[in-house]
Specification:
This protein has one domain: Winged helix-like DNA-binding domain superfamily/Winged helix DNA-binding domain (Arc Repressor Mutant, subunit A, Orthogonal Bundle), CATH 1.10.10.10. The protein has six helices and two strands; from the N terminus they run H-H-H-E-E-H-H-H. A hairpin with a 5-residue loop joins strand 1 and strand 2. With about 140 residues, it is mainly alpha-helical. The termini are far apart. The longest helix is centred in the C-terminal third of the chain and has 25 residues. The protein has a two-stranded antiparallel ribbon. Helix 1 crosses helix 4.
């Protein structure tokens, strides 16, 4: 089997793309955007959008306003939000359920070596994503 490197998806893009698009949209519009309008713009379900944006609210990058005129507003300057930050926020998960304790020694050794390699790859990717901000995306869109 021969792999085409142009067709391999290295970055898990779905949540990352949605988050980057939503934050860019908030930066461009600079006003409160309802989850319904934002979800329609992004062509996704509003409840999924709220789940994607929740970690950004927790991080203080986005403000969630409740009520009839509620929605989301970007609180952080787009020049200070890197794609690496967005990637890390959208891909943070607990690995406790992913690490079974009843592995034999060979599996544990493989997992250790494999994790070292994938961590190195991820660090290189994050180094590249760190070079770009939301403001860079906005600049390329105009």
């Amino acid at each position: 089997m021969q792999l085409n490197p142009n067709k391999v998806e290295i970055i898990p893009k779905h949540r990352f793309r949605i988050a980057a698009f939503a934050l860019t949209w908030l930066a461009i519009n600079q006003c409160v955007q309802s989850s319904a309008v934002l979800a329609e713009t992004l062509q996704i379900n509003a409840s999924f959008l709220r789940r994607v944006l929740f970690p950004f609210v927790q991080a203080g990058m986005v403000e969630a306003r409740e009520g009839r005129d509620g929605g989301y507003v970007l609180k952080t300057d787009p020049t200070h939000i890197t794609l690496a930050e967005i990637f890390l926020i959208t891909n943070t998960e607990t690995n406790s359920d992913l690490n079974p304790t009843d592995q034999d020694e060979t599996c544990s050794l493989f997992d250790q070596v494999f994790e070292e390699i994938t961590d190195e790859v991820e660090q290189q990717m994050l180094k590249s994503l760190q070079k770009y901000t939301l403001a860079d995306i906005m600049g390329r869109m105009h």
